Batch of 3 targets.
Target 1
Amino acid sequence: MPVDCPCSTGEELMERINKAVQAIDFEAVGKEFGPALATALASNLMTTETLTDIALLTICLEQDDTELPSCHELPLSEYHGTFYACPTSLLSIAQLPDTGHEYEFGCSRVARQNARAAVRRGYEYLRIDRAEWVDDLHAIRSSAPDRQGRAMPDAYMERQTYSSDAWPEPHCKRHLITVHGVVGPNGRLAAYAQVVQCGEIVRFNTIMGHWDHLKDQVVWLLVLELIKWHIDECGAAYALYYTHDSGYGHGLQYFKERFGFGPAEVTWEF
């Protein structure tokens, strides 16, 4: 329905908008919908159009669904009292379908085409154990001194050692840390990601590609395939990739949105 607006100039319209924003009870918004949404509104980061795109989600972490230690510990260490329990910005979450096949053909054509381009160039996705790829992991982490407009921490330039990522037996696939990689035609690791399955959601913890291989779309292949794996193997219903406004400029946000990620306010259930 069209709105009757007597304003004759853009300045007058903005003045009316600012007065309306000032009238918002941000404290009440925070109590009702969470601090991230209130902060975004208070910072004038949202327009009426983007506000309608925010997903209000309730996600279950399924704590203690079995007697295994990970089923008790992961929900606490990942979300209880951590940044994700009370984020200062809206989280970036993808709502996932029932199968990996549905996800692949439900996300953007850009994501599919870029992933297929990496395959055509000889790259292959696989789950990895970091203890078996120490040299290649060091090469990836130290391949660029700056990323996303910021200098890499010194620790990324230093060689690391890793304990085995093999799962304990028995294990619960709803509470599991997994590591995924993309290997190039030369047999070397070109990209990797560590993610955490916790109940209904899989969360990206670390993701990185070798600087010299990014042009071959290796990270696109990595993200697509690891999400498909977690849907089919762990029943993931959601994927979390930090906050939606994270990263330098709009490049990372564009990347995430091609995979179905969008801004969300989350209520966590244990």
Target 2
Amino acid sequence: MLQLITILNRCHRFPGFVYHQARFSSDHKSIEIAVRPRKGSRAVCSRCHQPAAGYDQLSERRFEFIPFWGFLVFLLYSMRRVDCRRCEAVIVEEVPWGDGKRTLTRAYMLFLARWARRLSWKETAEAFRTSWEKVFDAVEHVVTFGLEHRKLGAIDAIGVDEIQYAKGHKYLTLVYQIDLDATRLLWVGKERTIESFRGFFTTIGDEVASKIVFVCSDMWEPYLKVNGEEPIMRRKLGRVPVIARARPVSPRDNKAAPQSESSHAINSTSRFQRGGLEDLAAPSTFSRALRLASILARA
């Protein structure tokens, strides 16, 4: 087990903490790694994120780590409480491998979230001998972190489309950035109404919305209304050109007429030729959007 501690120190070292001991559990189905504070290190307040004087120590907690050679791995650590003068309260310390009361380590949540992009959540849970709820928790953590630290930057063109995720006309509105140098999912909203599409522009704010030049959409009336008829959107965007069911521009068309700004946009977005974002929103992308919808809708 000494070699395992050496590996952890090489690839996943925590300042201020030491991997003390590694051992098999009593049933030999998992590996338990005891962690202790490094001598002389001070605990960090989880509220103000500053070192504070120690107060007491709680009972040992188990944090689930990335599986190793088919064995479940747990970090064992007794959390300290600090008497924080800044916060004027006794607060549990902040540890670099954990997030609040979650039982999964940050590294394991990122690990599960990455696999959840390739497999279904159920398959991910079965492959790594965990539960669907833990995979959901991992994805929620990673998506929330990504949204908090996301930089939208300049957006020239967006595509909006809807997908049905359940029987009984249950739809989601998807908004993508479709610039030539950037293609990504920006927003997922419930239903396919005017209010749901307006929610996207409310989320990105006036400054980013005012720089959008083109909108690729089908002829669904609520999307068209938001594009040009709603007074708030007219003030933000003016009459944004709508590229409805864009088709590729053939060489014959290019010779027949010079390219205007709108025709250039149609040519640039020709990959959406079948009435929306079908090429971009392939089944794998749709399934990920569906799985993340409940998280993004709350953000």
Target 3
Amino acid sequence: MRNMRVFALALFSAGCASAGGVFPEAGDGASALANAERQIAAAQQAGADSLAAEVLNSARQHVAVGKTMQGRDDDRAAMHGRQAVADATYARALAARTAAERQQAAAAASLNALPRGGTE
């Protein structure tokens, strides 16, 4: 019974040691922030500056905070970069949705402007 406990403890210790620590690494902060800046530029091209400004500003803020953390805490910088990517992706999708809703409303207005009935 004692040998079984020692074996289980050794197995558990080996598993924890191979995991690299309690928290996994978030990745390279510089590349995450560079990717975030590319996604923010793509969102701007999609019109997110005017159609999803609040979300896009959140992405920019995450990039700014991530840049201040670079060098000191690369994992946190990478996490801020990932959050900025998520915000920029959402801003781009929100801008596309808003633009589509506006086009749909314009098409509906044009359709309603047509005379009712059939041929006259």
